[in-house]
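Re: the 295-residue chain
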Amino acid sequence: MTGEVTARAAPNLDLLKARNFPPVSQTFGERDCILYALGLGIGNDPCNVEQLRFVQGTRISVLPTIAAVLASPGEWMRDPSLGIKWERLVALSHHLEIRRPIPSAGTVHSHVKVTDVFDRGENRGALIHWQRELIDASTQECLAILKGLALARENGGFGGHAPPVAKREPEPAGPPQVCFRWSTLQMQALIYRLSGDLNPLHSDPEVAKAAGFEKPILHGLCSLGVACFAIVSKVCRGDTSALKEISARYTGVVYPGETLEVQIWHEGPNVRFRCRVEERDSVVLEGGTAQCLVL
């Protein structure tokens, strides 16, 4: 009818659970491991032995969180066929389980699987749960499992199931046993993106401003990697193979050049942490947990 506007139905994101995503393979070596470490800012003190072992030497140490970027499918949620408005997409959390120590070289493959989608309602968005297994191509053994939760802020109202009530443990009481300060670099997001996450939100000032940020922001997984380095250094006594799990919720953004403080509480193998930006007194990682076998 002339003059009548018909609303376009929201894409049914429930269909993501049945979607088969193509596998991704990657052959990597020490150069990739070094680049990942540099993307976290490791090496900013070129005389620090604890940092240097990740970026030079005959046997490179490999930080476990590199598993989050190896054989990565990149920004798969930006595929136009999925119907996700990626400009309004927010990563809410990541959980990484390390099954076996990550080697400094090899071939790995993985594929993304959407495990659940919940509809928060129109104007409230949709929650997308996904996971990715990292498989050693030579042994077919699972090296790690990465689970993620994302909020598609403009994709709610498609008639899906409502999310369950989230249960969150209270934040740790008392002062942290370890406070680990880390100065990020102005160019850190530009280096980190070379490990696979090329989202322009982290590199293009115009895209960042359109998304509501002052300038490009640091990757959430980069902040989680810094927290991992802090826990390996201060709790696991430098033993990268001791870290078995790490997870956190993203509660704020980090602008490259800001100073991070990783606050750590640990009792036995259980580690809890959070991360704040000192300059703005803003908590950016919350509800952090890790399992570390060396104490």
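The CA atoms of residues 33 and 239 lie 16 Å apart.
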